[in-house]
Write a structure and sequence with these properties.
5 helices; binds S-adenosylmethionine; Rossmann fold
């Protein structure tokens, strides 16, 4: 299970500003971000990892947990979607699904727009290692709301909204 780290805390401190109505967290790990969102909104959280979900289910009673690969088992739309992805293109050990998964951010962005309520927002973290060019995603407006330098890496926290022509 992913232990909260700098990336988790960078998102955590902004959740109170955006969690209103309903929140969905994809890839909840220890549940730290879903727990913060649940103080301000009705919260659902997912992970692909059964151990994380078992841990979270026993710890947090006011959050709905769903086992899902990205949005596969999600049917509803939300005011806020949070994702701290396994953001490295390839983790050096190649063991960790927590930190590395090829194309996961692209797949997330393809699907996320169908799960946002009107005026819904996304909090999404990228690393300088993520290999993402935001110009490749014209369905979203990207606003950089925070960043942090750690070791050899920069972390970027973006707030995304759908562009006007996105259905
Ligand atoms: C970097 S960790 C973030 C954990 C937690 N949200 C945090 O900020 O501390 C990424 C999480 O995404 C989960 N994950 C990886 N691939 C996934 C997928 N396809 N669908 C849902 N969750 C996934 C991992 O199991 C892990 O818990």
């Amino acid at each position: 299970m992913y232990q909260p780290a700098e990336d988790s805390y960078l998102i955590l401190k902004h959740i109170k500003d955006y969690a209103k109505g309903t929140t969905l967290e994809i890839g909840t790990g220890s549940g730290i971000l879903a727990n913060e969102a649940s103080k301000y909104s009705k919260t659902t959280a997912t992970d692909i990892d059964t151990k994380s979900l078992n841990y979270c289910n026993s710890k947090y009673k006011n959050i709905t947990f769903i086992k899902s690969n990205l949005f596969n088992n999600i049917t509803e739309k939300y005011n806020l979607i949070i994702f701290n992805p396994p953001y490295l293109p390839l983790h050096p050990t190649e063991k960790s699904k927590e930190l590395s998964s090829k194309n996961i951010i692209q797949d997330f962005l393809k699907q996320a727009k169908n799960h946002l309520k009107p005026k819904g927002k996304i909090l999404l973290l990228f690393s300088s290692f993520s290999n993402i060019n935001i110009k490749n995603f014209p369905n979203y407006k990207f606003k950089l709301i925070d960043k942090q330098h750690i070791f050899f890496e920069d972390l970027y926290l973006y707030l995304l909204t759908k562009t006007l022509n996105t259905k």
